[in-house]
Amino acid sequence: MIRIMLVDDHAVVREGYRRLIEKHGGMHVVAEAADGASAYAQYKQHQPDIVVLDLSMPGKGGIEALRQLRQWDDAAKVLVFSMHENAAYAVQAFQAGARGYITKSSPPSLLIQAIRDVASGRRAIGPDMSETLAATHIDGDRGPIDRLTPREFDIFRMLADARSGDEIASTLNLSAKTVANYHYIIKSKLGVTSDVELVHIALKYRIIAPS
Q1: Are residues 102 and 52 in contact, defined by beta-carbon separation less than 8 angstroms?
Q2: CATH architecture of 144-204
Q3: What is the SS3 string spanning the chain?
Q4: Would you list the domain boundaries of the chain?
Q5: 124: buried, middle or exposed (CB in 10 Å: 19+, 13-18, 0-12)?
Q6: Is a pLDDT exceeding 80 seen at residue 52?
Q7: Percentage with pLDDT > 70 across the chain
Q8: pLDDT for 142-182, tens place per residue?
Q9: What pLDDT is attached to residue 115?
Q10: Are 68 and 36 in contact (CB under 8 A)?
Q11: 61 confidence band (pLDDT: 50, 70, 90)
Q12: 150: closest CA among 117, 105, 182, 126?
């Protein structure tokens, strides 16, 4: 029996996933979480075989949640199931320790197969993301965002989303000075000098949507 934890901030979506998953033999959803903090607590309590994780969540976000899970348990098997179809998110997810990445536009059968693959120790990448990642590497256009660590990526995403340094510090349990240091490092790695340029890069690589 594959014991699964679902992490998504929409209760209705989680219910749909639960019903889909439990229609198939050998799978059981043992825990659910709506954000990164509860995902961490639920994982420690239930220690599931696999985590199916969305990236777009309030607060810390999915990349930070993934990083924390892997920091607590470096054997944690996490399958990212996200609406983000751009290579930047997939690269960051794998750098943070994900074992699979498929998009929410994938057919249900692909999610089920990906859960089985990751639970068995194999890597799972949806065909749409495989093509996107392959094209990115072939073209040699990985982009400056790939230079960021998962923690830097999350702070970059929050900065581009117009969140203040104090708000980011509170969300990630960091000091304001630490966030300011990350802010400087992120701008240096991306080769920019202003927050306006940070936003332009975030828009270019679809890290944030135009308002």
Answers
A1: no
A2: Orthogonal Bundle (1.10)
A3: CEEEEEECCCHHHHHHHHHHHHCCCCEEEEEEECCHHHHHHHHHHHCCCEEEECCCCCCCHHHHHHHHHHHHCCCCCEEEEECCCCHHHHHHHHHCCCCEEEECCCCHHHHHHHHHHHHCCCCEECHHHHHHHHHHHHHCCCCHHHHCCHHHHHHHHHHHCCCCHHHHHHHHCCCHHHHHHHHHHHHHHHCCCCHHHHHHHHHHCCCCCCC
A4: 2-139, 144-204
A5: buried
A6: yes
A7: 94
A8: 578 888 998 999 999 999 989 999 999 998 889 999 999 99
A9: 96
A10: yes
A11: confident
A12: 182
Give me 178's structure tokens.
């630490």
Nearest alpha-carbon partner for 112 in 121, 96, 124 = 124
**Residues 6+ positions from 145 with CB-CB distance below 8 Å:** 88, 91, 92, 153, 156, 190, 201, 205, 207
Return the structure tokens found at 188: 């240096």
CATH 3.40.50.2300 assigned to 2-139: yes
**Residue 74 carries which side chain, given as an amino acid letter?**
D
How many alpha carbons fall within 13 Å on the CB side of residue 207? 28
Angle of helix 195-204 versus helix 176-190 axis, rounded to 10: 60
Q: Is the dihedral of CA 171, 176, 179, 180 positive or negative?
A: positive
Is the model's pLDDT at 138 over the cut of 50? no
Give the number of other CB atoms < 10 A from CB of residue 139.
Answer: 8
